[in-house]
Amino acid sequence: MTTGHAATLANSDDAALIEAVKAGERGALAVLYDRHAPVLLGVGIKMLGSRTEAEDVLHDVIMEAWRKASSYSPTRGSVRAWLVVRMRSRVLDRLRAPARARRASGDEAARPLERLRAQDAPEVKLKSEQRALVDAVEMLSDDLRATVVAVYLEGLSVKAAAQKLSVPDGTIKSRLSAARTRLREVLTKKGVS
Questions:
Q1: How many domains does the chain have?
Q2: Residue 150 CB partners (closer than 8 Å, separation 6+)
């Protein structure tokens, strides 16, 4: 995408951007994201009480907007309203169904960590850095911890972890990125590099 084209997209109204998204223009989706993500994220955080979960849902909504841009109709409201309705709907889906699944996945995620901690016996002494890492992983939100455990401790692929946790592949990738950032912050504060 040329600089001129990017500037044109940035100055386009939402209806024109949706038309560009329908035509497969990724840059238009990026502009829509930049323009509306703060509002959508705010809706998600307010409803879920978790920035991490809200970011996951926002990612899903943006991917859904990419796939289903043709379902947008200007006669039924603004692009922002269309996106907010999708965000609220996805958040409500998450609040209804996975409450038990989130708790269960959190419990499942604790088991491998407990096994690692159980190795902290005199005959199999964990290094202090390993202990710090286990502590840091335990501090992650349930969703992030379950994802880290599935991929790094259970050795599942992104696709297999997505199936196990009933989320899209992109959500697993987003969660892994968020988890790495959070772990890096916690371990740096603890003096572990």
A1: 2
A2: 109, 156, 160, 161, 164, 165
